[in-house]
Amino acid sequence: MEVFFQSSLPRAGSTLLQNIIGQNPDFYVTPTSGVLELLYVARKNYSDLPEFKAQDQEIMKQGWLSFCKNGLNGFYKGITDKPYVVDKSRGWGIHYNFINSFHPNPKIICMVRDLRDIFTSMEKNFRKNQHLNHKLINHNDLEGTTTEKRVDIWAKTPPIGLAIERIYQIIREGIDKKILFIRYEDLTHTPQQELEKIYNFLEVTPFKHDFNNVEQLTYEDDSVYGIFGDHTIKQKVEPTPSQSNIILGEIVSQNIKNNYKWFYDYFNYP
User: Contact, 24 vs 76, CB < 8 A?
Assistant: First the structure.
């Protein structure tokens, strides 16, 4: 069994990609996974507990890395007998060097999308759920009361702000050279071409996908994620027209592009 990773921006087609890959019978694909968090919590205990500190550190390190490697593989061997797994979690990319310490040369795919459309998706979900109090707005303190202010909040908090910051740091550290970035716009315009890139990156024999009939294989209880949880996909892979100028307005859209010039330059967005 070989485990691959998907570590994408929110609202950038990560669920769609998982379900496309899941058409291949050799692949087990996950919804949002908690496996990284299992390893992350275990790392804290390994680092902090005196029982590990009091023993030979080189021996403990060997045991710890073996624990991580076999824990990752063992988790999925308990779930599937398929030869390949794609685990989806936003944190894999920024933790590349941690994964590499026990899972050499991890193959990580990262979906990105025009940030204006990511913020548009968030704002649309916000407007669709006005019957709920989701604590984003405080009228007394004038917090979150306009589209501009909500975009600013999302830009500075998880999941959007954190995910963008992680990509920035990935690029600064040079980890980007080891990750396959797929633009959502490219996946929906030329899906066959993008899947060929993915199979080449994973070094796996290509599979003939049906982009007109993508079955939903991964399921999540979106109520856990509140009004912004939306992991239902469309059956047909097709482009999604941008609505940023309509939903956010031209000024806010331009501000996003100005604030994240590095992102638009790096990923060659017009």
Answer: no
Model confidence pLDDT, tens digit, residues 108-134: 999 999 999 999 999 998 888 777 767
Tokens encoding 40: 């992350």
Phi-psi region of 209 (alpha: psi -120 to 50; beta: other; left: phi over 0): beta
Interatomic CA distance for residues 153 and 161, integer angstroms: 8
pLDDT tens per residue across span 9-36 = 999 999 999 999 999 999 999 999 999 9
User: Dihedral of CA 127/131/134/136: which sign?
Assistant: positive
pTM, rounded to two decimals: 0.92
By DSSP bridging, strand 27-32 and strand 84-88 are parallel
The backbone torsions φ and ψ at residue 92, rounded to the nearest 5 degrees and listed phi first, read -60, -45
Residues 6+ apart with CB under 8 A from 240: 117, 184, 188
Put the strands of the sheet holding 27-32 in their side by side order: 27-32, 84-88, 2-6, 108-112, 179-183
Cis peptide before 239 (omega within 30 of 0): no
